[in-house]
Amino acid sequence: MSSQDDDSLALVGVILAGIVGLVIAGVIGLGIYKSRSKPQAAKPDAVLAMATALVLGNPANASADAASVQVENGVVKFYFASAKADLAAGANEVLAEVVKSVKSGRKAVISGFHDASGDAANNAELAKQRALAVRDALKALGVAEGSVELKKPEQTSAASAPSLARRVEVVVQ
Known about the structure:
By secondary structure, the protein is α+β, with helices and mostly antiparallel strands. The protein has four helices and six strands; from the N terminus they run H-E-E-E-H-E-H-E-H-E. It has two domains: about 1-40; about 55-170, CATH 3.30.1330.60.
């Protein structure tokens, strides 16, 4: 054999080793990509038997200034537009789960929240009106008034966004 044949065989070996390396890297990369793109299974909510996070509207979007409702870790959170006490569209669908829990002998506790901007007395009154709007929606869905507890409105910390402070929370106990 000549030295030219040895060089050709060495080149073919290097090319084959490179191709094998690329195939192995591709298979490993594909496996990593697929394992990271699998959706996480939702955990069932023990309190309301609902999804951990159900969102109707976007409470974090302060510029929209629109009402929304979210269920997070068994707490139903109603967010309100600035200076309004109107419930978000779809609120009754979320409250239907609260109604089922209350009719099984539990109690709905409603808490209103407000931020620190503006007149504190006006903010507390608006938080109260929002809590009453949620209570009235529950009553309209068949919940007895004795199965609902209203808590005094609370001021949220100054660190939270005003759109997140304008809320009413419902917890089933």
